[in-house]
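User: What would this chain look like folded?
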Amino acid sequence: MAVAFVSSFAHLAVEGNELFAGNERLKAVIASWEDRAARINALDFTWSGEESQKGRVDSSPLKKASTARPDVAFGYKTRLILDHKSRVLLDYEGKRWSPEKADYVESRTVTAFNGTVRIDYFPSGEKFPSAHITQQDKALKAGRHVRALPLRMAFRATDANLGVFDPKKLATSHLKGQVGAVRCDILKHGADEIWVDPARDYIPMRWYEKRGGVTLWFIDIDYIFDKRHGWIPSEWKIVSLTDAGQIIDSIPGLVTEYTINAPVADACFQIDFRPGTWVQNYITNERYIQRESGAKRVIPDGEYDGTNYETILRTDSPGQWSVSWLRIGGGLLAIVVISALLRLWRRVSGKSAQKLPTA
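Assistant: Here's the prediction, encoded as structure tokens.
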């Protein structure tokens, strides 16, 4: 039976006995968030959980018929790395809906910003492995994914690239709320509500994203205390809702390992494409398939018709010599050169023998 998820929490928001101290209290909240972001300049978190999605009808303007998705639950694993150079890695392993197969398939997506460009890599879950390399202006927002929201809320709340909240939209409120034994202050962010714990550096504990007074997303975060780094997110739930407050999707997360402010190797942000990966480089305007030798099988405009990936994979670009023919040609050239040198040597040797004195 469907349950209205938000209703059990909404009554906890009650009028406080004291008004917020206006801008001074808001300044304290933002200062606390910015201080935590400055102290936690690098992090590496891995978390997992069982994601669940309610059944729905998958409609596409390109398809004449709609496909009914069933209810599904599956395990997933995600890793987020941020470092002091503003480099980002977000690696997700789970499942995705495949309209072609009308089923959920194993999927992995990796997004990396290496300080210069952004790479979105899809090694599985698609028709074939693919990757996109994009400009730096888009690269700076790598990691802005709903799955990373709890960590972004905790450590990059107002960051220009990875932040969740716009300081200009924040406002104090006279409302307070209760999360377990914790009495929270409630901030307004446009139509949204952010529940923070004033006793623990205003850590964000709950966020209601609302449109027209209706909650669309709900995020709840639990923390543990780290002696060196303070309050650290340890567990959370991300829930999307219908207009009636019924659960559509639920993504609980449990942190399994983390490191903070440790050096991050450059290799963490470098992605090696497996052979057969279709690469679209929007910076150099290249399109090619990565081969085992590291060579690029260039794909001219108009060659791919949506069905001939395997043919392109096995052949060489039109108008180009294949690697095998180059090797054969190189081998034949070597034979010719060696034969010519051998004939020259024999001719010179023969002449020298004719000049030798007889007994």
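Confidence is low (pLDDT under 50) at residues 1-21, 321-326. If you want, I can go into more detail on any region.
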